[in-house]
Automatic annotation (TrEMBL):
PANTHER family (UniProt xref): GH17980P-RELATED
Molecular-function GO term, any one: oxidoreductase activity
Highest classification ranks of the organism: Bacteria, Pseudomonadati, Pseudomonadota, Betaproteobacteria, Burkholderiales
Official protein name in the record: Aldo/keto reductase
A GO CC term assigned to this protein in UniProt: cytosol
Domain NADP-dependent oxidoreductase: 19-333
Length: 341
């Protein structure tokens, strides 16, 4: 078993390992996932030293929470791990409700018979939290993230849902934190602007940000990360492979060699080839470089990655813990593939 580094989130008592396991793929995101497969991934992660697991009501429309909770309980792992889930959606019976509109059309394979409805109000946050407790079978949740509250995600409806948070959602979150039902509060989003905007009005301990900071996208390091550090907001980085290209490489399967969920454009492929050239000279794998580049930033507390097999989990752990010489990073700077600072 690897002994993965553990860090506190913000100024809270919640701790996360350097590598966390995200369970969106295990919810059946575009592919069928059996219970045995789900169990294999969770137990392989635990054996490998992972002590942080992330889920959400959206993942498999309740299926991920149900299955994760059952596995943690039956293997007696709950007391050793940190759990995060999300609010902002309430699940309703599929026969009597309409599914929430989404910017991203997610095809859940064999989900539970529910649909998700956006609700960031006081009652919506409380119901989502209590429903997640029931599905997970736990009496408290360590980290609670407000899911997808961003202008890019909602477009013209953003102010409506942000208004629900202001009118009652923030109060619900504050109550849950103050009574000890959760240790840390944050956002779970695909954009950085919303983190600072919400933080202007409500104290955030952390935020999970997907796909914004990677070996190919350094923009958050300029202003966003320093501001998060100043405000005491720990970053949980997700989507660090930019949806596939940094895991597959330039010669990977075109179907999964994607950048931000789209076919990787030529300029991205050209940059990846340059990265691969330096990796080859130093005998460093591209996934290892991608994972460790993100984790090296002091604003990043944990890197969360999904997996669909025990082998994938082991590969991810090996990538994060592999030794990479400082000369490798220096050459990437010299080649202007990462920032000089």
């Amino acid at each position: 078993m690897h002994v993965l580094e553990q860090r506190k989130l913000g100024r809270t008592e919640a701790t996360v390992t350097s590598l966390g396991l995200g369970t969106s793929p295990l919810g059946g995101c575009g592919v069928p996932v059996s219970f045995e497969q789900f169990e294999e991934v969770i137990t392989a992660a635990y054996r490998g030293g992972v002590r942080y697991f992330d889920t959400a009501p959206l993942y498999g429309l309740g299926k991920s929470e149900h299955t994760l909770g059952h596995i943690l309980r039956t293997h007696k792992l709950r007391g050793d791990v940190t759990l995060s889930t999300k609010v902002g959606r309430v699940l309703k019976p599929a026969s009597r409700a309409k599914r929430a509109e989404s910017r991203y059309a997610i095809n859940w394979v064999d989900p539970l018979p529910f649909v998700d409805e956006y609700d960031y109000s006081y009652s919506g946050v409380m119901r989502a939290f209590e429903d997640s407790q029931q599905r997970l079978g736990v009496d408290h949740i360590d980290i609670l993230l407000v899911h997808d509250i961003g202008r890019v995600w909602f477009g013209e409806k953003y102010d409506i849902y942000l208004g629900q948070l202001r009118d009652g959602g923030f109060r619900a979150l504050a109550e849950l934190r103050s009574c000890g039902a959760v240790k840390a509060i944050g956002l779970g989003v695909n954009e950085t602007e919303s983190v600072l905007k919400v933080s202007d009005e409500f104290k955030l301990d952390c935020s999970m940000v997907a796909g914004r900071y990677s070996l190919l996208n350094h923009e958050p390091a300029k202003e966003f990360f320093p501001e998060c550090e100043r405000r005491g907001i720990s970053i949980i980085a997700a989507g660090v492979f930019n949806s596939g290209i940094l895991a597959e490489g330039s010669a990977g399967n075109p179907a999964t060699r994607t950048y931000d969920c789209q076919a990787a454009p030529d300029e991205v492929l050209d940059r990846v080839r340059k990265l691969e050239s330096v990796c080859e000279r130093y005998r460093v794998t591209l996934p290892a470089a991608a994972l460790q580049f993100v984790y090296r930033h002091p604003a990043v507390t944990s890197v969360v990655i999904g997996a669909l097999s025990g082998n994938q989990v082991e590969t991810n752990i090996a990538s994060l813990t592999a030794r990479i010489p400082e000369e490798f990073w220096t050459e990437l700077q010299t080649e202007k593939l990462i920032p000089a600072d």
